[in-house]
Amino acid sequence: MSRRLAAVLVLLLLSCSSSRDGLGNPGQPSRAADESSLLERARLLSSLALNEGQSHEMLSELTRVAPARLSGTPAADRAVEWAEASMKRLGLKNVRRERVMVPRWIRGDVASCSMILRDSEEELDIAALGGSIATPEEGISGEVLMVRSFEELRRKASRAEGKIIFFNRPMPRALLNTFLAYRDAVPQRSSGAAEAGRVGGSFALVRSMTTRIDDNPHTGAMSYEDGVPMVPTAAISTADANRLAALITAGRNPVLRIRLDCQSMPDVESANVVGDLPGSSIPEEIVLIGGHLDSWDLGAGAHDDGAGCVHSLEAVRLIQAAGLRPRRTIRVVLFMNEENGLRGGRAYARDHAQELFRHVAAIESDSGGFLPRGFSCNASGARAEAIREIVDELDPLGMGAYIPGGGGADIAPMGPAGVTLLGMVTVSHRYFDYHHSAIDNMDAVNERELALGAAAMAYMASALADANLPPEN
Ligand SMILES: [Zn+2]
After folding, report:
1. How confident is the model at residue 36, as a pLDDT?
2. Do 61 and 203 sit in the same domain of this protein?
3. In the chain, what is the straight-line distance between the N-terminal and C-terminal CA atoms, in Å?
4. Rounded to the nearest whole angstrom, what is the distance from the C-alpha of residue 342 to the centroid of ligand 1?
5. What residues sit around ligand 1, an ion, with C-beta below 5 angstroms?
6. Domain of 455: which CATH number?
7. pLDDT over 60 (residue 122)
8. Mind telling me the catalytic residues?
9. By residue range, what is the domain housing residue 308?
């Protein structure tokens, strides 16, 4: 392409005429022109995000106004108010709360674990898992049966009666994709209590889901199984898990005394928060972007998923600041209750079932505010190729990885209706250092990395809102 043509395209982009006669021409756009303008668009959005971005400020505000916004708490209510006010301030239309009933689990004030040896007693760092029942007031005391898998627990079932079952399989450190490492180990957290209850154990103590060795227990969701005795359950920090394991391996036979006073209450009303940036020429078609507004209650929820919320809000601000007028509507949805119920994601898919066929794509950011690498996507065939070409344009910015896969948990319920799902992929080596722990706070967030995530989201949302996408085949 000539330099002059490229200059004209940049001017077109800057003069806000992108939609009808430029980027989004629904006829047969020149391929070269289309690609050049997409790259220019990505550069413009990222320079706006870096020069005058507001994502860091927005995330500071959210984590200050509504830290530890676990579903059903006053902090989650404040997050809903913040989201609604933010969308209105950013000029989104039809801003509304969509009602969702959410579980209400209260951590309580007591989470103690004393490790008793013949000649000493010390405290270990634990945190109740979300949904756990309490221990009796005097606590649960017992010897420990350490296992690394459910299969090992079944083999040792005859020794499990009355024991505290200690699930100590670490996340595999060698996996470059830390989300795959998480997936390998996390069944211990989600189903450990049920497995322990099934073999007569008294408690499920689970190694925290992180490869980092430190003193922070990482909470997270768990569930009980019908017909299986319910036992309380907690995460133990990786440093204390290692100490406990070393003593057990050395035959020291420690006894633990654990107390939790958490409790589950009846469901309460909460909301997804939704707002639209109306499309300029086909407003009835929707590209949905979002993250989840709720977080765990130990830290401020900066990375998980305050970052995804501000990625989405800042994306619509950047699109407007860049003078883009995407053809389709870009809808921001900040979902409630991803962490311990997924009620918001399910409610959106159910309540919007009649219009899901008009959802061209949904993009979730729920991998933290780290440097974006690209996007995962569940499309196939020609549609996947078209989306891959759009993502490829981010390559010169280091964000052009296209990874076949799904989107986030909140948008997954739209998958069966045929909505194309995408997830922002980040450099995730530090994600699980903070995930669901007391250190998921603002000081763990880099301003530039967060800003680039918002730019990537703005690019992908606006490009998909303008693109001529072939159907799945
Ligand atoms: Zn999350």
Report:
1. 56
2. no
3. 32
4. 11
5. 304-305, 366
6. 3.40.630.10
7. yes
8. 338
9. 3-102+267-466
